[in-house]
Amino acid sequence: MRAVEYSGWASDIEEYSKMINCVKDQIHSVTKKLDTPDISADILNTLMDNICKTLDEWTGTTYVGEKKNPKISKMYQMFFIELYSFVLACQKSEIEELREFAGKVLYRGKLFRYLGHGDCQDDIECRVEPVYNDIYVSWSKKRDNSYLKSKLYGTITVLCCEIKEPYYGIDLAPFGVVRADEAEVVFPTVENTMLEVRYIEEEDR
């Protein structure tokens, strides 16, 4: 299995997309044959390294309040779909270490998401409303996140959801890629998991 190395996507969206797509395909291939002799410890170790590198790019080169390049967003969505399938397969694996890994990654419980404007030149008087869909986005296990608040301008929209059966979020902490104190979990904005939507005006922070 090929080891990937990211060199930054700002100057080469095409190459960056290909790298994410490569890891997505690797995850898919391993998931199909997870508990077979075709999947060695070396293959699993390389795959885990590649997953961690890709997640590190997600947490390190995406910015609060700014939309991602559409092509990059599409690649990450496909990557997270495959990653979720892989972790679910690990949950049912005959290999104890993989089951333990899945137990750490699959998250149920309350999550919080902050929406707002990442640029003071935006129309910061306009509230950013939630969009309910199946797109994986970043949430936090922390109710109050001063880091995210400091990065947003204008009114902040705060979402609170609770993940219950049959859903799981993907906890990024076990991958060692979480930035600052974000306590990040990746999960779509699913309407029937929502507990609360509230707004914090700039003068009330």
Walkthrough of the structure:
- By secondary structure, the chain is of the alpha+beta class.
- The chain is about 40% helix and about 20% strand.
- The protein has helices at about 15-30, 40-60, 70-90, 95-105, 145-150; strands at about 105, 110-115, 135-140, 155-165, 170, 185-190, 195-200.
- The strands form two sheets. A four-stranded antiparallel β-sheet has the order 1-5-6-3. A three-stranded antiparallel β-sheet has the order 2-4-7.
- Helix 1 (about 15-30) runs antiparallel to helix 2 (about 40-60), helix 1 (about 15-30) runs parallel beside helix 3 and helix 3 packs across helix 4.
Write a compact overview of the structure shown.
Helices cover 38% and strands 20% of the residues.
Which structural category fits the helices and strands? alpha+beta
Q: What value does the average pLDDT take?
A: 88
- Largest beta-sheet characterization: 4 strands, antiparallel
What is the overall number of helices? 5
Q: Residue ranges: pLDDT <50 for 5 or more in a row?
A: none
- Can you tell me the overall shape? globular
Span between termini: 49 Å
| Helix and strand sequence | HHHHEEEHEEEE
Count of β-strands: 7
What portion of residues is helical? 25-40%
How are the elements arranged and paired?
Blueprint: H1 13-32, H2 41-60, H3 70-91, H4 96-105, E1 106-107, E2 109-117, E3 136-140, H5 146-151, E4 153-163, E5 169-171, E6 184-188, E7 194-200
Antiparallel strand pairs: 1-5, 2-4, 3-6, 4-7, 5-6
